[in-house]
Design a protein that fits this description.
With 94 residues, the chain is mainly α. The chain is built from three helices and no strands. Helix 1 packs antiparallel against helix 2, helix 1 runs parallel beside helix 3 and helix 2 runs antiparallel to helix 3. The relative contact order is 0.16.
Length: 94
C-alpha cells in the first residue's frame, strides 16, 4: 500500500512539473494544454484498468492498481490546475 501511495505522489509530481513547464513555455499563461495533460492521464489509467480485466488473475490486479494510481494522480493534477487557474483569475481582477 505504501508503494502505491508513493507511485501516486511521484506521478502527480511529474504531471505538475509538466504543467508548470508548459506554463513557463507559454509565457506565464494558462492554456488548454495544461488541462489536456491530466485528462490524458485519467484516460490512460482507465485504459490500463480495462486491459487488466482481460488479463485477469493476480497480474491483472497489479495492472489495475497501476491504472488506479495513474487515474488518481491525473485527477489530483486536474484539481490542482483548476485551483491555480481560479486563483490566478481572481488576482488579475484586483
Amino acid at each position: 500500500m505504501k508503494g502505491l501511495i508513493i507511485l501516486i505522489l511521484l506521478i502527480w509530481i511529474a504531471l505538475l512539473f509538466f504543467g508548470w513547464l508548459i506554463y513557463r513555455l507559454q509565457g506565464r499563461q494558462m492554456t488548454w494544454a495544461q488541462y489536456i495533460l491530466p485528462c490524458v492521464a485519467v484516460l490512460g489509467g482507465a485504459t490500463i484498468i480495462m486491459i487488466s480485466v482481460d488479463i485477469g488473475g493476480w497480474n491483472g490486479i497489479g495492472y489495475a492498481l497501476i491504472g488506479v494510481s495513474l487515474m488518481t494522480s491525473g485527477l489530483l493534477t486536474l484539481i490542482t490546475i483548476i485551483i491555480v487557474d481560479v486563483v490566478m483569475r481572481r488576482r488579475r481582477r484586483n
